[in-house]
Predict the structure.
Amino acid sequence: MLSHEDVERVAGEFLAHAGLELLNSELLQALWADYGFIYAVQAKPIASTASVSNQKLSVGDPLESDGELRLVLKIISPPDAKRDEGHLRKLFSYEVEQYFYDRIAPLLPPSFPVAGEKRNDLTAAQVYSAIKWLADFHGSSWSMRDDYTMHGLLLPPLDELEARRTVKELPPRSIWRNGGYTYLATRQTEYASLARRSNFEWSAVFCKHEGTASIAEKVAKFLNPKGRSFEAFIHGDVKSENLFSTESGDSVAFFDFQYVGLGLGASDLAKLFTCSVPLHMLVDGSAPLPDKIAMQQGELNLLKQYHQLLTRYETTDGTKYDFSDFQRHWETALVDWCRFQASWGFWGNTDWLQGRVRSVVSDESWRNWLNQQK
């Protein structure tokens, strides 16, 4: 484990490269599963290189009135013993996060928010702002698919490790080919465990083969990025813990871009609606939820808001992204998200999620649509 002295040595080296000197560092928190730490850092320009520091940091005018900078250091120090897929996913995710802040974040507008809540519902104002942020992020990414990024997409963790071992000249790595950390290709262990739970409702729903594949496999195949015009850069881990908000909630910004990659914007919405949107914004009334829940007006209104904001942007080939298509994508993303929760553990608006997915998978028109997808 890194000592505080080790952290300050590393911080000092980084800062010196930018023409800064370290004044103080304070531990804020440990990273998930003991993979490192986040520190608050105070620094000031070295007098002889003050003009250089602002240029290298590329953060506009970062100096505060006292001539100091307040920065955040995320330092990665993974456990030595782990070598499984989850370990690889975390290691590669930090590379993706670095790429995002180096290459993609400078293309996005700056925001100056305050921290959101820990695993909690957002206010209505924050929900609307979060939907707007996601629509803007997804839509603006349609114009960000430069060759450098697209040629360096990371594969699922085990495949990425094999590629790094066997391919002599891999392109510089960028973001995930499949954004997020819940897609089926990287959750085969959990999926196999779910399939063995013969008395569990969701085992039969997701794992039973219908023809050549199960519903989970058909859904995963559709959601897997394949160059379609409506695919976007998705955040991959949308929840209130990864959000900053103004005090009024009229503006928000997400952070923690370890799992940013290609995907459908609806996948980000599925997690947001389940984990952070108040239930009363999704369903009508306060009566107990039925086992099957058709889309209600609150959910529809939020989806329409997102779609209207998203379609202000032009898709990669200029084709129109109709709401009817988006709604099918939304239903499919809900099914995929429920599959992950069923294999990992449910949290959030779980009765709503399960009720919605029961409704979707029992809809013959959705099943027929899914079977027709290539």
